[in-house]
Known about the structure:
Elements: E1 22-25, E2 31-36, E3 42-49, H1 61-67, H2 78-87, E4 91-96, E5 101-108, H3 112-125, H4 130-147, H5 151-164, H6 176-180, H7 184-193, E6 200-205, H8 209-219, E7 240-244, E8 250-259, H9 267-278, H10 284-292, E9 296-305, E10 310-319, H11 323-339, H12 344-360, H13 365-377, H14 383-394, H15 397-407, E11 414-419
Parallel strand pairs: 2-6, 7-11
Antiparallel strand pairs: 1-2, 3-5, 3-6, 4-5, 8-10, 8-11, 9-10
Amino acid sequence: MLDRTIAPPVGQIEKINIPQFSNRNLKNGVPIYFLNSGKQEVLKIDIVLGAGVKYEPKPGISFLVSRMLTGGTDSKNAADIATELDYYGAFMDASSSFDHISVSIYCLTKFLEPVMSLLEELLTRSAFPQDQLDTIVRQKSNELAISEKKDSQVGAKRFRQNLFGLSHPYGKILTAEALQQVTRDELVDFYQNVFLNDPVVIISGKADDSAVEVLSRSLEGLQLHQVAAREGVVAPLSQTEVLSRESSVQSSVKMGKLIIGRHHEDIHKLHITTSLLGGYFGSRLMRNIREDKGYTYGIGASVAHLLDASFLMISTDVVKQYTADTYSEIKKEINLLRDELVGEDELQVLKNYLSGKFLSGVDTAFNIAGKFRSVKLHQLDYSYYNDFLSTINHMTPADVQETAQKYFDTEEMSLVIVGGEL
């Protein structure tokens, strides 16, 4: 019998064997990656399309196409589609990002065939009815109007805009005015000529041979597109922007810079050092600005990876009167990492946290699919994750300091403050 008074043994995680995905290329060139894993008779299907913001000819088109996929086809209206998904116990989500449109479906294995039949219809015969377009534009316009009153959301948009500039797709901000100028004909044109661009299909769960066959039959007839992304030039705007709002009770602070991507040899050291600064509850920024000073409920630092660029961002919402003090303390913590060696005990706590967090992220088939997708879209493989674990184990205080000195120069960082003043 298990003795729960004795703690299980603890050791370093040197390497982890993540289950490999099999793959098949359909006649039309669609690559399908599948992992047959888990005990439950459920599946998740991810279809990733090169049809995000950087492919759209006009702001808002990628977003509206993704939102309107379930708005109606040439034989079904939105209510019919919702009823059919509900009948089979399936859930569908479609969303647009800067790089992609992603369509995800969760369903029971036994209902895969009718669900895929519906999905094929949505991918090839969506009708984009005008009444649905009007409804979605009205709803999203209201959301955008509300977001303009939220300091944190305004700060995040301004920060990204200042990093990339107005001419780069990553710097574009969706507005209600832009949405209202999009016509149904423009959506149909994008759907017919761009939407099915460079698809990648990832299946996880009970993805046995029969399931893969069903999915293959449904997708091999798709007429694919070959469309290049629109070029953009990074042209940063203001280095420091302060948008004072008398009505705000808090200030939103965003600070950071463009930084190295996933293929760089220092990327794992950068992630670890960023985590030490502000990537978990015991981080330097949390201990100082939340626990010690009480200026905020939470503060974080992270590295975001898009396909064509990466950036570091430090983000927090603080009591308005402590805006300048918070900015000063952030710079102080960054400079401490650059000037002084971190203690071995503090670094070991971080290593344990990062290792444990990684393990919890590969505990289900769907989580593994997320890890696979992340590296696949960046043209990497699982060695990326084992390199990360190895770097965690061998990271030294000197490595942390060297990384902070290379990448955490506050003079190079953009700053956006919305609410209070410096």
